[in-house]
Structures are given as structure tokens and as C-alpha cells.
Design goal:
about 400 residues; alpha+beta; 2 domains; 4-stranded mixed beta sheet; globular; binds iron/sulfur cluster
Amino acid sequence: MLIEIIDKIAEDELRERGDLRYKPRPSNAGTEKCIRAQVYAGLDFDAKPLGGRFAQVLDDSSWHEELSLDWISKSVYKVHSRQLGINCIKFNSPLLKERFCEDIKKDGKIVFKGCGIYVPAGTVHGHIDALITCPDGSEILFEHKAVSHGVFERLGNGDLPTDYVTQCCLYYKGLTELLDKNLKFAMLFVKNKNNARKIEYHIYYNCDTDSATVELYKKSDEGKLIPGGTWDMKNIIQNALFRWGEIDKYVAAKTLPRRRFDVDDWQCSYCRYGNYCWTEYQKEIKGRKDLIELAPETVTEIIRLKNSVSKNRIELEKEEAKIQLLILDEMVEKGGTKAIAAGYEINLVQFESRHCDKKLIPAEILEKYNTASELATTKTIVEKVTFKKIKE
Ligand code: SF4
């Protein structure tokens, strides 16, 4: 009874608020998100409405931030400048108009609280979560993320959240021009929503070289802060600017970049543009048939992948996925299904991807799920790049 009511209220409120129009902002910087989905947003396609439960997940995250900052403010660390507006960086985009960051109202209700500051044309603007003054008087930029148990485990095991780091670096850059005192570092504070475990990333960003050293800290069983890994990131803001520039180009040309993920990837399952994205896919794959020649850079990447020996499985998998995408892009571009390169026969093969949508099952037969799930299983042909070593 109450479950239905709460979900409905949350869904209605979210729908009333609507989506903010796409423009380059720190929270959508970085290269992890699907660029095709960002272009759909830039082209003003109607995104699938978020359900009531998801609306509450977003709301929960805001409350987790409140709770964490409340705990911190009870310590010797001082929390201030919450939601401070920052002009982070110049970026020449037609979507970044001269403006004041003002409240956005819908039907008389404030759906976005502006900070009121002047934003010149071509300026990426955002709002930090807070600044924290340390006992020694130095300042830390604080960015809070409350995540699911699965995401938390992944991060704790060494999967660096590069989009979040990029977001922090953009704020950091804008802040260094705003503050008269030095920032110690940017802290990305990640909380597990299930069990309140936390990790801290200390991000030491160098504005001159556009690079950062990122340190991960966890809590030991004895309650002490212990290091959990260190990463060096390069060209952080440059990569963000390049990505926004690509999105602007696609939006201006009213075209779409290729799909970045498989249809059964979690990014596609949660994507709000999935109903547009895969409509023409079957027709597209039927049109590919030729043996093609891959570009020398692609061949170099294949050799690098196949010769590399890494102890870090996650990094290796990421590399493989990146090179697979590179090959997939080129094979699709050239209309081929097969290539011979670097001693491998590379095939673009088709798989059947199955997805069971329980919403399609009528309530009265949901109990007999085994039969019903077969009825509700949708089958999709998807493409994957495979390698087969050629005998010498
Ligand atoms: S459905 Fe997948 S590939 Fe398509 S836009 Fe969304 S995330 Fe990107």
C-alpha cells in the first residue's frame, strides 16, 4: 500500500522537475559514460522517464552526503562553502551561453537551485559539495559519492572511477583561481550505502601539467587509514574537453557516434535512450559482409594487447575492451566481418543475447515463472570481435 504511494509520489516529483538540458558540466565530464547517450541528450531526445524507485535512489544519495558532512562537522574539521558555484574552465561551446546561474522554476516550483554567480559565455560551471578546513588551516575540496555495494567493492578492489576524478580536477582548477590560499588536495569520499563503509581518494592535481596522483585510502580492522593504491592520471581536463568537443560536433551535425557498449552491458540496461539506440541495429549488421584491411595503428594495438603480460587483470580487461571497440568501430566503418592482422584472424561474429523482462509477465502467471520467463525472453543478435591464432 505505502510502497506504491511513495514510489508514485517520487516518480511524479521527478517528472515535474524534468531533466536539466545537456551542456558541458563537471558532473558529465570524463570518458567512462556512453558518448552516444550524451549526444542523444545534446540532441534533446526525450529520455525514458526514471521510475519512482530510481528517484528515491538519487534522493538517498543526497541524504547520505548530508549525513557524512554532518558527522564531519562534529569533528575538528570545519565544513563550509557547500554548493559553492565555480567557474571551472573556458570551453568554446555553443551550448555554454553567458548567464547568471539562477534558480530554474517549473510551474512556480524551484527545480534547480542556482548559486547566482555570473557565468561568462564559453565557461564550464558547476557546484562543489563542500570545502573542508583542516586543523592546520589548509583547505580540502570535498566531493561525496554514495554508491551501491557492488560499485563500492569494485572501487575498493582497484577500479579507479576516472569520471569522478575528472569532476574533482575541474572543480580544483576553478577553485585555485578563486581562493587566495592553497588547496591541499581534492578528496573524493565514497560511501557504501549498504553498510556505511567508506574509502577516500586523495587527488593531487597539478594545473600546469594537467595530471594528478590519486591515492586510495581504506580503514584497517584497527580503525587506521591505510593506503589501497596509487594511480597517475594524465591529460585529465584535456581529455574532458576533447570529449565535450566531440559531443558538440555530433550535435551540430545531428549524427550519432557508434554504440560504446553491448546491448547486455549494464550501461545499456540502465540507459534512458536505449529505445532509440538499438532500433536499427539488426538492419545495420545485415549490411556487413566483406574482408577488410585494418589500419596500421589498429594492428599495433592488437600486437600490444596480445604481447602484454599484466598482473592486473582489471587493467588488462579494460585494455582488451578498448581495443575490441577500436576494431569493432573500424570493421563496422569498413563494412567488414573479417580481418587478418598481426597473426590473427579477427571475426565479427554474432551472438544471441537474451533478456528477460518480468514486466511483460501477467501477474496471474508470474508464479509459474519458469514457463512464463521463456515467453518473456527477448532474443537479440549482437556482435562481438573474436580472435583466432592463425597457424604459422
Ligand atoms: S543504449 Fe547503450 S550504447 Fe546506446 S546510448 Fe545507451 S548506453 Fe550508449
